[in-house]
Design brief:
This protein has 121 residues and is of the alpha+beta class. It contains five helices and two strands, in the order αααββαα. It has a domain at 25-98: Arc Repressor Mutant, subunit A (Orthogonal Bundle), CATH 1.10.10. Strands 1-2 form a two-stranded antiparallel sheet. A hairpin with a 7-residue loop joins strand 1 and strand 2.
């Protein structure tokens, strides 16, 4: 006796597709950190909180990992500090849209501007 397993032609319909998990939302400390970039040129995020304490590195790293922030500039004084800025996804997580002026690096916006010369008096 031959036993043959038959595969349903509707196997694709038989599989239940689970909905994609919702996009992660910032925790309260992450939201406070990201919101501070809304008022800064280019969406620059702070190194210190409103009380003058260093922003927890895990907060910064979590925001980068979720795509809400991106490394921006190197800090020559403290190279271990990560200077970041908001991304379009970060603005969206805060319910905002990224302003056109925040889409480029500050050096790119001022590349054509003449340099000011210091005059001695």
């Amino acid at each position: 006796m031959n036993s043959v397993l038959s595969v349903s032609e509707d196997s694709e319909r038989d599989r239940r597709e689970e909905p994609a998990p919702p996009a992660p939302r910032p925790t309260e400390p992450q939201r406070r950190y990201l919101e501070r970039g809304l008022q800064q040129p280019g969406g620059k995020l702070p190194l210190f909180d409103a009380d003058g304490r260093e922003v927890a590195p895990r907060t910064v790293q979590a925001c980068v990992a979720n795509g809400w922030a991106e490394p921006w500039l190197k800090n020559p004084i403290k190279p271990d500090w990560l200077v970041c800025r908001l991304t379009a996804k970060g603005y969206a997580a805060l319910g905002r849209t990224q302003p056109p002026s925040a889409a480029s690096h500050p050096a790119e916006r001022t590349a054509g501007a003449p340099k000011r010369r210091r005059t001695e008096t």
